[in-house]
Sequence to fold (678 residues):
Amino acid sequence: MSLVYKIIGAVELAIALILLMVSFKFGTTSYEHWEASRAALRGLNLIALREFPAAKEQFENAIRTRSDYVGAHEGLLYLAMVSKPADTKGAKTHANDILTLTDRKGPRAAGAYIAYGVLKTREAAEAKTPADRVRLLDAAEVEFQNAQKADPDNADAWINRGILELIRKDWVNPDAPQPHLQAAFEAFSKARNCRSVCVLGLYPQTAALGRLYFERNEHLRALEEMAKSAELDPEGVGGLTNYGVAYGLRLINPGLAEDQKRAMLQKVDKLIPATNPAHYFLQCCVGSVYFSIQRFEESKLAYSQLANDHRERGTAFAGLAALTFYRYQQGANKGIKDEPISTTFNLLHLAESKGDLTPGQQAWCYNVMALCRREGYPFPTTNDPKPVQSPEYYLRKAIELDPNFWIASRNLGVLHQEKSEWKDALLNYRLSDKANPAQEEIRKAIKTFEEPPQVSTPQLYPKTVTTDPDEMGITTLEVPAFLVTVQPSYPGKVERDATRIWIDNTQQTYWEFLTDNQILVLSQESLLDGKHEFRGEFVDAGANVRPLSWPFAVDLAPPSARFLEPKGDDLPDSKAAFLLELEDSASRVEFSTFNLRIQGSGTTARVVDTVKKGAFQYDMPPLKLFKADKVKASPVKFMLPASFPPEGEFDLFLEVRDRAGLEYKNKFHFKFGKPKKP
Fold:
């Protein structure tokens, strides 16, 4: 943002071009004209000497001599624009006078319109709402377009429109920069084709172009433009500052090869004077680059010189701390652990106390201070240790300052994991992964932590009843108990307070851990005969939920049987069909246990099942036990054996069990008479 403001300020200097043109535009046909021109020329010279109050007096003298002297109004417009605080009212007054005197045409009118556009841009910078900011920037663009209409070959109007696009990119659409970058590039390209570009206008153009190339990741071209801006800067400060910043950014560009960095480092010593604001930043970049190519002595020398020259600033101390800690990690100082760690912590404490670090730099300091604490600082031999907090404190401070600082989030996650604080560990791993998705180990850890616990099919407890894991559990107890095994994906047991268990719609409270992962649930109330549901939401220490739904049946009664046909005990003859219905309200009939015994006269008995397709029959001696193992559904249809006499009495003995093992036994008595004659 600071570069944008600098560019805006530089644009105002372009208005001074108008003053240079004024002195030679009009002839000296009268004494008044000559006197006004001489006063305006004095004003120009005083502006060059930065004596603004005296210059203003000369321009006002020129206007008193000739009120329609445009050059004097232009001089006052320039002074109003550059005054601190800005004289907005005076600037608008003089710009309006210029537009009136020039009939809104020509280079002078274009300069007035540009002044109006710059004023609108200033107002946008102070706008309270995004909507007001957009409205004012749109108004500024209209003024720059008016400047182009007044002077179609005006390069300054195109330059300002390009800078306006960069401002829109920063202030309005930072998440969608590409259209604005493209529009700015096109505007600057058109400015270069204009014939009326002024020397003072070239400086903001080259500075803005340099920034634009950096936005497009074309660092070498950016450096070239910033070098031009350094040559064009009339005061020799702003341009050099841009150049120093650009050179430093080019040095630390990750895409720069090591041999290129070495070549640039050879030229850096005399590039920017020590009095320039960019010198400190550039030298910090030098120390960082020496560090990156592992020329540690040169890096230490650069940081030490900076720390000596700028004791009031913290970056150099942070760089020395980074160098000390890195060399310790590489094993250079493992034998004397307390010395490098203590040195690192004290340097970091000194750096962050200076107050000039960026939030990102300060976050980095806190992260390394946490690492020093984990290495044992302060050591018993440390004299007068600095105030220290816990490692967690420093890491939280780092994340608070820079939420995207993925290293601090990762380190805090590790600390929580070591303390079995799984939920907090997962939270910080997710933050770290969001800021830097390229961490394979963190992604694996997150995947493990996010995996809900594994829950086994509940077992009725104690094991005194039949259970079918594929379908449902069956119990003959009115108050059943259940044993559930829950295994989280990482160490730790299920969170009891977060886990919920229901039987039907009643939430259970009578349950406990037999082991860390085995839960025994006892029904809170007696259950009725019939089907029920065991439900659970099992929550692990990472707040991952595994739902469970398991049907079971409480079977308190054996199955039942009744004959649908015949309706009564008397049969017309022995050829009648029997239809036997079997049912169980809870666990269902186990048809494989179906047994039928027929007692009566004759030598053969037959049971015919006509319910299933493909009827079958059994030939069976009387007074024997016969098992219909192919009977699989109810009702069962059969007939008496063909050998039965035409009249008499007999008994059917039925045995069958349900799936809970409860047995049904019964005897049915029938009698039949002679068939009726037709």
Notes: The longest helix spans residues 130-150. DSSP finds 23 helices and 20 strands in the chain. The CA atoms of residues 463 and 475 lie 9 Å apart. The first strand starts at residue 454 and ends at 455.
